[in-house]
Amino acid sequence: MPKMKVLVIFGGESGEHEVSLVSAASVIQALDKEKYEILTVGITKKGQWYWGIDPQTWKLNNGTVSSHDVQVTLVTDPANPRFIPVSGNTLPGDGKFDLIFPVLHGPKGEDGTIQGLFEIAGVPYVGSGVLGGALGMDKDRMKAVFAQAGLPIVPHITVLKNQIDNDPDSIRTKVMTELSFPVFVKPANLGSSVGITKVSRESDLGQALKLAAAYDDKVVIEQGVKAREIELAVLGNETPQATVPGEIIPCKEFYDYEAKYIDDSKLIIPAQLNKKTVNKLQEYAVTVFQAVDASGLGRVDFFVTDTEEIFVNEINTLPGFTNISMYPKLWEATGVSYPELLNRLIRLGLERFHRLNVTD
Ligand SMILES: Nc1ncnc2c1ncn2[C@@H]1O[C@H](COP(=O)(O)OP(=O)(O)O)[C@@H](O)[C@H]1O
Ligand SMILES: [Mg+2]
Q1: Which of 214, 295, 312, 348 lies 20 to 30 angstroms, CA to CA, from 163?
Q2: Residue 287 to residue 122: CA distance in whole angstroms
Q3: What is the mean pLDDT of residues 67-75?
């Protein structure tokens, strides 16, 4: 049997470009070479796509493209989807593949946009589709569907950049009446804690709103809670399963960008929680996954207080995927090895594609 051609795509324009390179290197290393032929496309920070890139090399040389690298584009022809060079160069093969494995985090990778392109091109891919990606990226809309599904979320206010620029006083009043300090101010559509500020007093609110508004038109102001950070991994399409919970012990005041990727935050798997709380978390994790219409994979993040009161924080539809990341670690602790996890994700991607593309 010929091997299945899996095309891993990574990098991208988001602030999580580097994290994506590390995740992709782990995925490529762990994919079963007996089963799969691996092809790659790297997306530069400027959004150009290059064939046959090694993510580790890009990580080391800061994404430098050499004159030998071939810029490519995905042909949107469902009868013959393939990559072709954008200029006179040739590719080493025919540019065809059986499935795309996007290992991209953040905007334009995890938010449904690139998934829309894959849909138009008519190709199977790993993970959530357009709606799941989009809802999983927008913290304001995500909370709306969580609330509708009866999930517990922290009180919050959503404001637009336009209001921040023109009417900051009314925002201040609303925050003072509806929330209490500390609050967390976040751009609605981003990840990796970029643009997020913990605000402990009124005088710091304006600055935090301006920072968040520099990243997005929409800003979410959330009630801060004193709680443990608990995460569960979910896998599946129509009948998703959740893992045991894991706990993050941030090495800083909150789980900011540095705590996530530079300093030494700790993961505790499984998290020490009451059995009843664990069951509730697993039930909520599946409800969250289904509420945003996720497929394939998702990591659901919670806040759990000292009295084990639970709040859903967010879902990440393309969570960090290095071999030391929470998502694969949680599956390992639940009995699914990293290479087997990749097999299942590929099967789920193909299954979803065939289910949605039945022609009679
Ligand atoms: N409402 C909150 N209460 C307490 N801590 C919070 C709250 N919101 C965010 N945080 C802290 O900030 C981190 C990043 O926020 P999060 O909403 O998860 O954004 P991102 O999508 O960038 O991961 C969280 O992991 C947590 O440490
Ligand atoms: Mg988070």
Answers
A1: 312
A2: 29
A3: 94
For residue 181, give the ligand nearest its CA.
Answer: 1
Ligand 1 atom with the smallest distance to the CA of 156 is 1
pLDDT per position as a tens digit, 255-273: 777 767 666 679 999 999 9
Question: Mean pLDDT, to the nearest integer, of 117-121?
Answer: 97
Nearest to 142, CA basis, from 291, 348, 322 = 291
Under CATH, which number does the domain 4-125 receive?
3.40.50.20
- Identity at 86, one-letter amino acid code: V
Q: Where are the domains of the chain?
A: 4-125, 136-152+226-356, 156-223
Residue with tokens 């590390």: 22
Compute the distance from residue 106 Cα to the ligand 1 centre, in Å. 15
Q: Which helix (H) or strand (E) holds 4?
A: strand 4-11
* Residues in contact with ligand 1 (CB, 6 Å cut-off): 154, 184, 186, 191-193, 196, 222-225, 229, 250, 254-255, 301, 303, 313-314
Best probe residue, ligand 1, of 255, 261, 267, 312 (max atoms within 8 Å of C-beta): 255
Q: pLDDT: is 153 or 251 the higher one?
A: 153
Q: Is 56 annotated as a binding residue?
A: no
Mean per-residue pLDDT for 111-119? Answer: 97
Give the distance (Å) from ligand 2 centre to CA of residue 353.
29
Q: Determine which residue's CA is closest to atom 7 belonging to ligand 1.
A: 224
- Do 136-152+226-356 and 156-223 agree at the fold level? no
Which contiguous run of DSSP H or E holds residue 164? helix 161-166
The CATH code of domain 136-152+226-356 reads 3.30.470.20
Which CATH superfamily includes the segment(s) 156-223?
Answer: ATP-grasp fold, A domain (3.30.1490.20)
Ligand 1 atom nearest the C-alpha of 222 is 1
Is 231 within any annotated ligand binding site?
A: no
Whether residue 349 has pLDDT greater than 60: yes
Q: What pairs with residue 158 in β-bridges? A: 220
Closest atom, ligand 1, to C-alpha of 225: 3
Angle between helices 338-356 and 17-30 (to 10 degrees): 100
